[in-house]
Amino acid sequence: MRDFSGDHRWLSINTATVRKSRGTDLPLPDIIEACVRRGIRAISPWRDQVAAAGLAEVSKLVKTHGLELSGYCRGGMFPAADPAGLRAADDDNRRAVDEAKELNAACLVLVVGGLPGALAGKAAHKDIALSRTQVHDGIARLLEYARAAGMPLAIEPLHPMYAADRACINTMEQALDVCDALDPPRTGALGVAVDVYHVWWDPKLQAQIARAGRERLLALHVCDWLTPTTDLLNDRGMMGDGVIDIPRIRGWMEAQGFAGYSEVEIFSTGNWWLRDQGEVLDTCIQRHRTAV
Amino acid sequence: MRDFSGDHRWLSINTATVRKSRGTDLPLPDIIEACVRRGIRAISPWRDQVAAAGLAEVSKLVKTHGLELSGYCRGGMFPAADPAGLRAADDDNRRAVDEAKELNAACLVLVVGGLPGALAGKAAHKDIALSRTQVHDGIARLLEYARAAGMPLAIEPLHPMYAADRACINTMEQALDVCDALDPPRTGALGVAVDVYHVWWDPKLQAQIARAGRERLLALHVCDWLTPTTDLLNDRGMMGDGVIDIPRIRGWMEAQGFAGYSEVEIFSTGNWWLRDQGEVLDTCIQRHRTAV
């Protein structure tokens, strides 16, 4: 297992972590500059942040600074209530692949979607099995396109508390079943993003990480689970502040040969997004060395 | 599958559902009277409510009214940071079995506990595997006692969002692995309580219900998953107000021969606990007939 205590060369910052500084939205170029100043070598930006700054501008910045992208957030949201909705998701996902390619991302992260309409509070139906079928079929279609573009797709199993509104793939086992079905030869074109926040509780986690193997372990996201957790979405903790044994999980991944970045992804309306960006990044660096 | 539309003979009220009326704590005898007035034939009371009213008094009320207990809430909380803590949990759980027996409950529901101290916000450690071992061993010890008393134990897999602080058994598969290990001959002494709120998201739910079979399906708890859910613990929805396909899950259970009560268990600080008890019970009856 790699020793992270001496430096932060394997730290990546998911730009949602510093989406806000002192409660105010932060433009992506400012985030990039702040990361570069601290010797952070990789980021994982969100599409809305890239769109706001302009894809060409972000691409230029990334190249100028020699930054790597540990991933691109995010494609997915496949289920829809009608064929037009399914087609619109397909179109949007192909654009996400193109953007990820332009930014030379290591993978496009897929948050696959849940019951159509549920995120807006009005689920079109209650048939989660149907959503799962639509997700499977949607990934199959996108995989053809992504394979041609040379962009790996990383299915991110989301915590079961998001099954209704964000992602109906909720365990590593379920994500890997999709990988086995759609990419049996393990080409590396399809795999998983392991976010400790989503999967730490899973009694089968170690076994499923072993099942995934190096070819399918495309990304590692870290933060921490707080007790109590006061909000289902935006109360993630800084590594070390919660109950997740992050080094143990990283060890399981590295035992399979995973050698990529450890990407910090924290949504925190009540704490970290209220702080100054510099303080948050400095804390990420420190915790990367001590708690990851 | 039983037809619930014509009456509410298979409705049970978990007394937490009307723990408060218009925001004020309601004594258990008042809850019992209100249920009896409406022809509700079964309840599932909580230990703190029973203790406040007095076990003998509650036992008398239950017998007088010919009420059944679809379950007794709850035993469990096995993990501890030291041997004294483990022994204290054992003692308390044996008392819970005795109380359940006195009240002639169908089963004692087990919320097994998570990381010791986490419920108070200070987890003693991050080793969830250790907690799971302690849970396994604790259930094994309690099972001897409960078997002698003739009181079935129902492991309730809790939603993974409670893995840290309330229960580290989080899927039906995991609960049934414990059942298989501790009661291989399927005597009925050990089984599961299926709460749709905790398990609806699980892609393996149908298969695991089939695996459980009649002998291990000891209880069915119902409420609904709201989108959005604003609180991890106390924002459960009334059946029909959320995204869970409750009849489908009940159908899977009844296909295995489950023929018990459908127990309504709703924690709702922001909605149902603010309403009048009578309105809540009447709504439970109506939704039992239309949405369960």
TrEMBL record, chains A, B:
<dbReference type="InterPro" id="IPR036237">
    <property type="entry name" value="Xyl_isomerase-like_sf"/>
</dbReference>
<dbReference type="InterPro" id="IPR050312">
    <property type="entry name" value="IolE/XylAMocC-like"/>
</dbReference>
<dbReference type="GO" id="GO:0016853">
    <property type="term" value="F:isomerase activity"/>
</dbReference>
<dbReference type="InterPro" id="IPR013022">
    <property type="entry name" value="Xyl_isomerase-like_TIM-brl"/>
</dbReference>
<keyword id="KW-0413">Isomerase</keyword>
<dbReference type="Pfam" id="PF01261">
    <property type="entry name" value="AP_endonuc_2"/>
</dbReference>
<protein>
    <submittedName>
        <fullName>Sugar phosphate isomerase/epimerase</fullName>
    </submittedName>
</protein>
<feature type="domain" description="Xylose isomerase-like TIM barrel">
    <location>
        <begin position="33"/>
        <end position="270"/>
    </location>
</feature>
